[in-house]
Write a structure and sequence with these properties.
By secondary structure, this protein is mainly alpha-helical. Helices cover 62% and strands 0% of the residues. The longest helix is centred in the middle third of the chain and has 25 residues.
C-alpha cells in the first residue's frame, strides 16, 4: 500500500488538531503545568520516535502483512473469511495483543523502566498519547510485527487497525469533557478519556487498571477494569509519586529515565497500596 504513510499521517494530524481544539473549548481538568513546555517535550519525542522507527525498520506492520500474504504465513492466510469479518477479527486480536503488551509493561521491571516515561507526564492531554520512550516504541514495533506475521491479516485490516489505534489513543488521552451519560454508553464500545484517565492516576491501584487503548472489553474480561478514580476526576493527581516539577517535561530527562533506579517508585507504589 504505497500511500499508507500519507494516509496515517493525515488522519493522525487531523485527530490531533481536533482534540487540541476540543481541549481548548471544553477542558475536563485544569492543567498544572505550562502546555507549551509539555508539548515541546512530548512532540519532540514524537519526532525522535518517527526517525528511529524509519531508520531501524525496513518494513512496518502494513508491509509485514503484505509479506505474510505473499508467503502464505499466518492464521488468516489459512482460513478464508469474508473481508469485513477478517478486518473486525484482526482488529480485535491485534488490540488484545496491545492490551497484554501494555499490562506486561507494568508488571516486568525492565519494561516498566521504559514505560514509566509515559506515566511521568504530570498532566493528561492529547500529547500524552504520543509520549513514549524510543526503546518502548522499538520493542512495541517488534511485538506488532511478530503479531502480524503470526496472524497474517490483510494489509487493509492492519492499516484500519493502526488508524483506529492511533486515533482512539489520542481521543482517550484527551483533556475533554463528555456528558456522563454519553461517556457511560461510549465506554461500552471504546475507551473514553474518563476511563483511561484513571490509568494515569498517581495511586498505584489505579494506574494498574484500565490498560486498554482502543477496545474496553479486555479490561472487563481480564479483571483490570476500574470505573472511576477514588478522588474523582477533578481531585485525582496525575503522574508518578517519585517525580514532580518542570523536569518531567524535559526531553533529555525523559530519554535518560529508563536508566534511573526503580527503588523510589516501588516505595511510592507501596505507599499507595497501604
Amino acid at each position: 500500500m504505497q500511500n499508507e504513510g500519507t494516509i496515517r499521517l493525515s488522519i493522525s494530524l487531523g485527530v490531533l488538531v481536533v482534540m487540541a481544539l476540543w481541549e481548548f473549548a471544553a477542558p475536563r481538568r485544569d492543567l498544572g503545568q505550562s502546555k507549551w513546555r509539555r508539548w515541546g517535550g512530548n512532540l519532540g519525542i514524537v519526532v525522535l520516535n518517527t526517525i528511529t522507527v524509519r531508520l531501524l525498520f525496513p518494513i512496518l506492520a502494513v508491509g509485514a502483512a503484505v509479506w505474510a500474504e505473499q508467503k502464505g504465513w499466518g492464521l488468516f492466510n489459512l482460513v478464508a473469511l469474508p473481508g469485513w469479518l477478517e478486518v473486525a477479527a484482526a482488529a480485535a486480536l491485534l488490540d488484545m495483543v496491545v492490551y497484554w503488551q501494555h499490562r506486561l509493561f507494568h508488571v516486568i521491571p525492565l519494561l516498566w523502566r521504559m514505560h514509566r516515561m509515559h506515566h511521568a507526564d504530570l498532566d493528561f492531554d492529547v500529547t500524552t498519547a504520543l509520549r513514549f520512550h524510543p526503546f518502548e516504541i522499538v520493542l512495541s514495533m517488534l511485538i506488532k510485527l511478530a503479531a502480524v506475521l503470526i496472524l497474517g491479516p490483510a494489509a487493509l485490516a492492519v492499516l484500519i487497525f493502526e488508524v483506529l489505534l492511533n486515533g482512539t489513543a489520542m481521543f482517550n488521552h484527551g483533556n475533554v469533557r463528555l456528558p456522563l451519560g454519553l461517556d457511560r454508553w461510549l465506554r461500552l464500545l471504546v475507551v473514553t478519556p474518563d476511563m483511561h484517565r484513571v490509568h494515569h492516576s498517581i495511586d498505584g491501584r489505579e494506574y494498574n487498571s484500565n490498560f486498554g487503548f482502543n477496545l474496553p472489553w479486555w479490561d472487563h474480561l481480564f479483571g483490570s477494569y476500574q470505573d472511576q478514580p477514588a478522588a474523582g476526576h477533578a481531585g485525582m493527581r496525575i503522574g508518578l509519586r517519585a517525580y514532580s516539577g518542570k523536569i518531567c517535561a524535559n526531553l533529555i530527562w525523559m530519554l535518560v529515565l529508563p536508566f534511573r533506579p526503580l527503588q523510589v517508585e516501588q516505595q511510592g507504589s507501596e505507599d499507595d497500596q497501604g
